[in-house]
Design brief:
With 248 residues, this protein is an alpha/beta fold. 46% of the residues lie in helices and 17% in strands.
Length: 248
């Protein structure tokens, strides 16, 4: 099975937002990544608009109309602005394929934990149903806990996105093998429960290949910070191709 690469372009918007010139262009970055072979584009619009903003979400959806074989993944907290964002796109007849529910607080620096299904199930269930009624695939951002995967499936989720920062932090340390095994076991539990598997957070050119080889059923990785950082040195096309080579 081929693992798809979805490029998160939030950091391009973050740099652009430091001035009022519209550069670097978020849509141009996305186009170059698609032309280089990326199978999707990811954004995580937060309520404070610190990086991706509402016009970016719309313009990227318009761009993806010309790429019907690629996917648009929109991440965010469904109890904040995420559902309004995707409802607007669907009302306009614009493409969005997947929503990734992430349990971020409004002022959170970055995503740093997955859902607590036992605590959040009653609130999540109707929102999962609402997103699916819009024709969207729903992925839940989850820690690598094998025991939680059946419960995520029971809520109605289609996929989970494994929060990979603990693996990335352990890379090159004595804990690396144990973390990789932990993620492999969580992925197998997700597969056994009937879930698809995505992953993301701090994956990079150094640690991605080993992760993709060890984690069964990996359908998609969403990578932003490291990939955009590499693109500053290598350019978008060469960077995307290097990440795709890790997944090949």
């Amino acid at each position: 099975m081929k693992t798809h690469l979805s490029v998160n372009v939030n950091k391009v918007a973050l740099v652009r937002n430091t001035r009022h010139l519209g550069i670097p262009s978020v849509t141009r970055a996305a186009l170059l990544c698609l032309q280089a072979g990326a199978q999707g584009i990811t954004v995580h619009p937060r309520p404070d608009g610190r990086h991706i903003r509402s016009h970016d979400v719309l313009e990227l959806a318009e761009l993806l109309q010309a790429w019907p074989d690629r996917e648009y993944n929109i991440e965010g907290n469904p109890f904040q602005n995420l559902m309004d964002v995707v409802r607007d796109l669907k009302a306009r007849g614009l493409p969005v394929h997947q929503v990734t529910f992430v349990p971020d607080s409004e002022d959170q620096f970055t995503s740093d934990h997955g859902w607590n299904i036992a605590q959040d199930a009653q609130r999540l269930r109707p929102l999962i149903s609402q997103a699916q009624a819009l024709g969207l695939r729903v992925s839940l951002f989850m820690d690598a806990d094998p025991s939680a995967m059946a419960a995520a499936k029971a809520l109605g989720a289609d996929r989970i996105e494994l929060y990979t920062e603990p693996y990335a932090a352990a890379w090159g340390t004595p804990d690396q093998a144990a973390q990789l095994q932990r993620f492999s076991q969580a992925a197998q539990a997700a597969l056994d429960a009937g879930l698809g598997i995505n992953a993301g957070h701090d994956l990079n050119l150094h640690n991605l290949r080993a992760f993709a080889q060890a984690v069964p059923g990996l359908q998609e990785v969403s990578i932003g910070h490291a990939l955009i950082g590499d693109a500053l040195e290598l350019g978008y096309a060469a960077t995307v191709q290097a990440y795709l080579a890790c997944l090949a």
